[in-house]
């Protein structure tokens, strides 16, 4: 069966990095025949796993990573899986081709012979560290962009720009933060497991390097926590501001209703076809109109004294 997957590889010495985009069943079957991977791990490469995971075997380790991807069409954060098989002489990555930093790192390894030699010479475990470091580092521009957006919302709210309700923007940021947490934070125990594998391809010497990746996850966790607190505060402030604006409008409308009620009564009364005071007076219209204006002024003064205005 012909394969629709895009397969590329870069080799230095005995170590090969094979990157597979959009893996299909035919490609996975060949991997099973070549490397003896467990069929359940290969099934995970075709399905969507809910969280990162690590499976250790005698001759290889299988890891599922999740990384956030910005959807430019919907302005939301999607979660992209990266499946990794790592053995003594190979690193195999499988994805759907949406991880830009993965592609950039592979192309750099492929085109820069010196860079490839320096990293491949240290083994497959170090190569995995380089890839993880680059991918987790690529999350910070997204965090910075969301932080900038939060500061923009903060400026609008606390400058009193009530004409521009930021409720939709606040909900969008909350959703983005939820997906970022879902993508990044569960990796902490996975990295800890990688540190303590101590196998031929991920040995104790790499513990310090994976500590660096753990530090990046910890830094991302701190930023996410801070931004979550900020957006919750802004959500409360926006709700209070919107409520205050609504109350102010209702107060103005109530004052209009209260002042127009007696004036409407007077005009309705003099519109009745019955004998009324001043009906034969030549200046009746102006007298009634003056009385209505006087009543309006008295009511407004009363509202002012009561501090309802």
Description:
This protein folds into 2 domains: 6-244, Beta Polymerase, domain 2 (2-Layer Sandwich), CATH 3.30.460; 245-305, Magnesium transport protein CorA, transmembrane region (Methane Monooxygenase Hydroxylase, Chain G, domain 1, Up-down Bundle). The mean pLDDT is 85. It is of the alpha+beta class and 309 residues long. The radius of gyration is 34 Å and the shape is rod-shaped. It is built from 10 helices and 6 strands; from the N terminus they run ββααββββαααααααα. It has a 6-stranded mixed sheet, sandwiched between helices.
Identify low-pLDDT runs: none
- The CATH superfamily of the largest domain appears as CorA soluble domain-like
Q: Any idea what the radius of gyration is?
A: 34 Å
**Distance between the first and last residues' Cα:** 80 Å
- The CATH level-2 architecture of the largest domain is identified as 2-Layer Sandwich
Q: CATH class of the largest domain, anyone?
A: Alpha Beta
Question: What's the CATH topology name of the largest domain?
Answer: Beta Polymerase, domain 2
Strand order, biggest sheet? 1-2-6-5-4-3
Strand content: 15-25%
Chain-averaged pLDDT: 85
* Shape assignment: rod-shaped
Helix content: 55-70%
Total domains: 2
Number of strands: 6
* Biggest sheet statistics: 6 strands, mixed
């Amino acid at each position: 069966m012909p394969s629709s997957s895009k397969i590329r590889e870069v080799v230095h010495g005995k170590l090969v990095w094979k990157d597979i985009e959009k893996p299909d069943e035919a490609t996975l079957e060949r991997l099973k025949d070549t490397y003896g991977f467990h069929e359940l791990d290969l099934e995970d490469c075709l399905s969507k796993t809910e969280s990162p995971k690590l499976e250790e075997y005698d001759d290889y380790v299988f890891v599922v990573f999740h990384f956030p991807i910005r959807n430019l069409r919907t302005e939301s954060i999607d979660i992209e899986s990266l499946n990794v098989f790592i053995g003594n002489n190979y690193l195999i990555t499988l994805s759907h081709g949406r991880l830009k930093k993965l592609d950039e790192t592979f192309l750099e390894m492929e085109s820069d012979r010196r860079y490839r030699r320096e990293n491949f010479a240290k083994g497959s475990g170090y190569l995995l560290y380089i890839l993880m470091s680059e991918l987790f580092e690529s999350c910070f521009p997204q965090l910075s962009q969301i932080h900038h957006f939060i500061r923009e919302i903060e400026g609008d709210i606390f400058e009193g720009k009530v004409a521009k309700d930021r409720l939709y923007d606040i909900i969008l940021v909350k959703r983005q933060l939820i997906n970022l947490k879902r993508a990044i934070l569960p990796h902490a125990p996975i990295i800890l497991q990688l540190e303590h594998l101590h196998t031929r391809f991920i040995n104790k010497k790499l513990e310090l390097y994976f500590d660096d990746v753990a530090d990046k996850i910890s830094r991302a966790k701190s930023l996410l926590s801070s931004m979550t607190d900020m957006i919750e505060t802004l959500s409360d402030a926006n709700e209070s501001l919107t409520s205050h604006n609504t109350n102010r409008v209702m107060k103005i409308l109530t004052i209009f209703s209260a002042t127009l009620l007696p004036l409407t009564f007077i005009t309705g009364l003099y519109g009745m076809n019955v004998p009324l005071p001043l009906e034969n007076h030549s200046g009746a219209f102006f007298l009634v109109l003056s009385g209505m204006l006087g009543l309006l002024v008295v009511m407004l003064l009363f509202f002012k004294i009561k501090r309802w205005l």
